[in-house]
Design a protein that fits this description.
Helices cover 49% and strands 11% of the residues. It is mostly helical. It has a 3-stranded antiparallel sheet with strand order 1-2-3, covered by helices on one side. It has a two-stranded antiparallel ribbon with strand order 4-5. α2 packs across α6. The protein is rod-shaped. The model has no long low-confidence stretch (mean pLDDT 94).
């Protein structure tokens, strides 16, 4: 018999039964005996990755960029874009109320400074988790 650790109790691998940590439960008692006899349960599955939010308020997005040490790179790039395209990017960057994950300008600028899609996702997840600065 093999068992796998779970968030609450264990799972019996043979049949997928979830066994709660209840000393009155016959399956839990069998699991405890298996442990006492030297059994080692499999590790629990890692928790699922947080969903990537599709919109983050600008203030929290900027906080996340600062925490990830990316704000200076992005601003330097945006400030260096010449002509009308640069003017448009600077206005959009400075006046944004929120940032949208699939915005093509955001993705292009982030990629231009070496950020991967996973890096962008991390900024959105972090920004979404932050408490707004008063």
């Amino acid at each position: 018999m093999t068992y796998k650790l779970a968030t609450f109790g264990v799972v019996r691998v043979a049949d997928g039964a979830c066994i709660p940590p209840d000393p009155r439960n016959r399956d839990w008692q069998e699991y405890q005996a298996w442990l006492a006899a030297g059994g080692t349960p499999q590790a629990a599955d890692p928790p699922p990755a947080p969903a990537v939010p599709q919109r983050v308020p600008a203030g929290r997005f900027m906080q996340a960029l600062i925490m990830k040490n990316r704000l200076a790179d992005l601003e330097a790039y945006i400030n260096g874009v010449p002509g009308q395209r640069g003017d448009i990017l600077r206005v959009l960057w400075r006046r944004a109320v929120e940032f949208i994950r699939n915005d093509p300008d955001l993705i292009a600028v982030a990629h231009a400074v070496g950020m991967t899609d996973a890096d962008i996702d991390e900024v959105f997840v972090l920004g979404d988790s932050l408490v707004p600065v008063p």
